[in-house]
Amino acid sequence: MDVARNIDPDEIGFDPARLARIDGHFRRYVDAGQLAGWQIVVTRRGQIAHSSTYGLRDAEAGAPVTPDTLWRIYSMTKPVTSVAAMMLWEEGHFELTDEISRWLPEFADVRVYHKGSALKPYTVPAIEPIRVWHLLTHTAGLTYGFMQTSVVDYLYRAAGYDLHWPTGMDLAAASVALAELPLLFQPGSAWGYSVATDVLGRLVEVVSGQRLDDFFADRILRPLGMTDTHWWVDGDHAERLGALYVPDPRTGRILRHDQFGALARQKPTLLAGGSGLISSAYDYHRFTQMLLRGGELDGTRLLGPRTVRFMARNHLPGGQDLAALSTGGFAESIFDGVGFGLGFAVIQDPVPGRVPSSVGEYYWGGVASTAFWVDPAEEVTALLFTQLMPSSTYPLRSQLRQLVYSALVD
Asked: Its domain of life (predicted)?
């Protein structure tokens, strides 16, 4: 399905000539061999102001990026899982302050790393139980093995939790295994990017009585018309999938990464609520429009508007930002002036990060350099798709913000 411009940009406050700078800027990455190709969509007030593609989805095959190209969105799965959880919350299945061990008993007696080496870690009991809101905000004390910044990260990798998950394990078994590993910090005391959303996906399964893929299909994807969003692809869908790349450490030019990219063509045993989806610009555009419209799109309501506004508030302890609470390591966000809501980062103050945006804007991205944001104040959404790992390779997201906000002239 196409995502085409359907209104003159100047009718919704954009300068068309300034919007055209977006394509000129991002073309340079492709022409220099630093990206294979990309797709960008910018909207305001529900109208598409700018939609463009450039380059190749598969450089080796010479296949161009087309409007219906499919992209591995990795951690842009997290907001979808968070919406799923909040739909169940709206139905009264749990409170955000509930202990997750009520549904996931494996987390009843978690312990927290205190000191010592990976060979002989010393742990202490958790003072505070992991609660639902901790999972939504990455304040549960869980981590990612690929961080490589702590003893706990090492223990994750030793248990098989790096960029890949252990072979043959489903989400239920993974939840049990993760609960046996020590927490990085006491729940609610810090912020650490983590597998928390994967555990949240398991919570959705237990509370709803459905597998995560079935819940997504029944309650989110089909109702929103997101027919191009999948957990894996084959046949015609696989032909539309962009190839995955990493930068050559010597030249900076793209290198194909089929070892990791090929996983998108295999039916997963484990439905990773934090990183599992493949989607199109059209589909994720519909998801962000649902959020911008306060939980409703084309007569289908997933969430109430007050719930969406509540999700987009900073829920970090004491109203602090990520710079104050982060344990360090990688995240799909800058830290200065940025809080965290129930499923995505939230701009508290754009000045410390030196990137134009609005207070209350919320966003996230994926490790292959995909990104989105929703700006309720300006009624703007933006989407960026490409397939380059890691997302920290180039400042694509901050540059897109510069270009979009400098084109907004009303």
From this structure: Bacteria
**pLDDT at position 315:** 98
pLDDT for 271-329, tens place per residue?
999 999 999 999 999 999 999 999 999 999 999 999 999 999 999 999 999 999 999 88
Residue 61's CB is within 10 A of a number of other CB atoms, namely: 10
Helix axes 196-208, 78-90, angle to 10 degrees: 40
Buried/exposed code over 114-146 (b: 16+ C-beta within 10 A; e: otherwise): eeeeeeebebeebeebbbbbbbbbbbbbbbbbb
Helices (H), 230-362: 235-239, 258-261, 281-292, 305-311, 322-325
Distance CA(372)–CA(363), nearest Å, equals 6
CATH topology of domain 82-212: Beta-lactamase (3.40.710)
DSSP 270: S
| Residues 149, 192 contacting (CB under 8 angstroms) | no
